[in-house]
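Postdoc handover notes: sequence design on the structure in folder B. Input tokens:
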């Protein structure tokens, strides 16, 4: 699941993972707020193994979402994605249980390697 308030992220991920999606190696769902992500998690029927969450979102931010996910769904891996490469956000994300921290622009080949390690 990709959680980002920027809706154009959907097209970007679909382009970058076109081959993997076509081969059914990965499947993405996209939500545009932390609140929507929690609703999906509460109603999930599929086995979700990874959430890619933006930090800076209106309403509940990605770090708040991270805390809830790690408390309620500890088996789900969470990678934080942010435009902020500062040490404070990095340390906060790691302390809250982030499994990885990626800065924008996303290096998709690197992300693909990390996803392949999970599946």
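Designed sequence:
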């Amino acid at each position: 699941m990709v959680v980002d308030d920027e809706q154009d992220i959907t097209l970007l991920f679909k382009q970058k993972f076109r081959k993997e999606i076509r081969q059914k190696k990965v499947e993405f769902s996209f939500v545009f707020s932390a609140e929507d992500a929690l609703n999906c998690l509460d109603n999930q029927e599929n086995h979700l193994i990874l959430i890619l969450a933006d930090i800076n979102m209106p309403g509940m931010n990605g770090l708040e979402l991270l805390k809830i996910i790690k408390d309620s769904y500890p088996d789900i891996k969470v990678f934080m994605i942010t435009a902020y490469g500062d040490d404070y956000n990095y340390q906060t994300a790691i302390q809250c249980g982030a499994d990885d921290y990626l800065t924008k622009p996303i290096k998709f080949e690197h992300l693909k390697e990390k996803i392949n390690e999970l599946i």
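Context for whoever picks this up: The radius of gyration is 13 Å. Don't rerun without checking with the PI first.
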